[in-house]
Amino acid sequence: MQGQQQQPIIILREGTDRNKGRGAQLNNIAAAKAVADAVRSTLGPKGMDKMLVDSMGDVVITNDGATILKEIDIEHPAAKMVVEVAKTQDNECGDGTTTAVVLAGELLKRAEALIDQNVHPTVIANGYRQAAEESINILKKLGVKVNLKDDKMLRNIAMTAMTGKSVGHNKESLANVAVGAIKAVAEKKNGVYVVDIDNVKVEKKIGGSLADTRLIEGIILDKEKVHARMPTSVKNAKIALIDTALEIKKTEVDAKIQITDPGQLQKFLDEEEKTLKKKADIIKKSGANVVVCQKGIDDLVQHFLAKDGIFAVRRVKKSDMEALAKATGAKLVTNLEDLTPADLGKAGMVEEKKIADSDMTFITGCKDAKSVSILIRGGTEHVIDEAERALHDALKVTAVAMEDGIALSGGGSMEIELSLALNKFGSKVGGREQLAIEAFSKATEIIPWTLAENAGLDAIDVLIQLRSEHEGKKRRNAGIDVITGKVVDMLKENVIEPMRIKTQAINAASEVAIMILRIDDVIAARKGAGGPPGGMPPGGMGGMDY
Fold it and tell me: CB–CB of 29/111 below 8 Å?
């Protein structure tokens, strides 16, 4: 009937929450900024730590951006995208996680101001993309070559990554450990270095102090010898790696053996003993004096091996077996019958030592070991855990520096240089994109600003000083020394970072900012509303659940 009001068409399930247009954009930007604010106070040498307590009461104390965001229970979908930036940065570079997140938050904050001036989000996205590409080109021109034979430079790179962490007072000894480990496992392929930090095995034991943390040129197994009569140490070890049980095999099908007289039983037992002795004899015949078994070792086999003076450990993890193969040159044997002297690995010493309250096996003196171990010591579990996170950062940045061979000065020096260069670049581009490029240029200044703020300095004064040094005196490596509050040459102060940390942070931060800016409609199912449509996370557009 004409004039009758049209019935509204409902296409979404009841209880679905929908947020459109400017409201959706501002909501997403607010969530991303909240994530950046959560980690901002941890940036730099004077950054503070966070104590994170989960629902089980477990405590984590850290200032590592990736760890903080991993532990926090975040519900907002846009905020989760920013957390992904930290994870990617951690996986790629080990360091710079807080930088990447803070930069992403600032890019969105600057974009918010442009949206309020009716600049279209697509225009902002295009400008940000151009600015990010130009930033990478600028950084490539500013990079300094890393001399891979210069241990001091590599140590400075490792120390820069650990500065500001709670283990910072031991950063020199930990940097020595990290550089030693990476140089041991680095392999040259087609003229370039390739480093897999999985070849550095980390063991933690409470007791002693952080200064007792040391590099072992070989492998540590958190295992003890299987028999008391076995030797405690073996010099010039010949090691057999066995990936099969040194036990009587059980039948694949259910079987029943009927024995009618005691003589048969004895015969059966003798046969079993003979089979087990044969296993021990094969090992002895190969010339092995150390056995590392991935599976179980029967008590009788243990007895025979002990009698022959062979050291044995059992139930060793697959990853440890692979590390041992790389360290000692041994081949993993899956069929005991195939064991030959050529399959054995070599080590200068295999010994059992008591560390804290447990016995551990040290396999050391491996020639050209391509897998090494680090034993971390510390007074409490929290100290050891934070030391492990700091060492992971140091190992990763040293590895990245060796692979790429290019580094940059730190202390906010590169961000100021980028800010000034991008301003000039923006005026060349012109149009509305210029506004976005200038916003990107301003956003990069958040890093030196935050460094100064966290050190209790006047951020405005510091930025004015930095601009004056870079623009007026052309000192491109001038950065903020947060200890003295002065602007100094960061290369001379040995504050050095691999270039990949900066390029990855800029790429990741700009990509996530562009992705969030392009969202203008958020459709989310409420909990209990019949499951999330379209793959949206449950919980709607709730805030951040800290």
Answer: yes
